[in-house]
Amino acid sequence: MNFSTFKPQHFLWKLDNGVATITLNRPERKNPLTFESYAELRETFRALNDTKDVKTVVITGAGGNFCSGGDVHEIIGPLVEMRRKKDSAGLLKFTQMTGDLVKAMRGCPQPIVAAIDGVCAGAGAILAMASDLRYGTAQSKVAFLFVRVGLSGADMGACNLLPRIIGAGRAAELLYTGRAMGGEEAERWGFYNKLCAPENVLQEASTLAASLASGPAYAHAMTKRCIHDEWVMGVDQAIDHEAREQAICMETMDFERAYEAFVAKQKPVFKGD
pLDDT tens, position by position, for the chain (273 residues)? Predict the structure, then answer.
């Protein structure tokens, strides 16, 4: 996929100096997802594995909201109709497809920064959770509200990923109750890395993404993969794993460039190789 000329159908895309910005763009409905936008997002993040043009990704929403989750009319209604028809295979196909989006986000080598304002609910909260870093606003509301529509909190990996971010007890409360977590609470609990003013949140997230994009891309990808892989490892196994992976990073030109720049008292220019 040529990301410099990429024109998705179901969200906005901008690529600038290695920073790709995905904007969910249905502001009149608070940017809900559809079957088609789920699938296109999944395929986009999968394709990021095969490009060197994109170094980092910012995901945000238009019109003062991040994402209100699955579209009630275009997703929830059809799913209820599947239930009525006892289409178990269709329901499973949908839940597996949405889970594949999270797998693609966690599996792509680029760090993902979410810029969150306003409503961030349901699948929108999952997109934020699946990102590597999250900048939010005090007025934002994050809700894993699946229980409020008669579903479990076990959706798209939430029971695995959310406890990693905010702790098991806090995650359990949000997933059992479906209540909204305010912005200041989200920062205090570690869900947000930083609180920003609403008018600045996208710019600050983009600045962070640009800073990461100017860093050693191969090493960043290694960090992301190790954070993911080591969740199932014991400490000793993780130490051995990191020894092997770090040794591989020491074989890169970026490692040598950093040394030479230090000796010359210059700032290193990383190229990702």
Answer: 889 899 999 999 999 999 999 999 999 999 999 999 999 999 999 999 999 999 999 999 999 999 999 988 889 899 999 999 999 999 999 999 999 999 999 999 999 999 999 999 999 999 999 999 999 999 999 999 999 989 999 999 999 999 999 999 999 999 999 999 999 999 999 999 999 999 999 999 999 999 999 999 999 999 999 999 999 999 999 999 999 999 999 999 999 999 999 999 999 999 988
Q: How far apart are CA 93 and CA 8, in angstroms?
A: 23
Q: Judge if 50 and 101 occupy the same domain.
A: yes
pTM of the model: 0.95
Structural domain harbouring 151:
12-213
30 within some domain = yes
Boundary residue ending a domain (213, 232, 252): 213
**Residue 112 and residue 102 in contact, taking contact as beta carbons nearer than 8 Å:** no
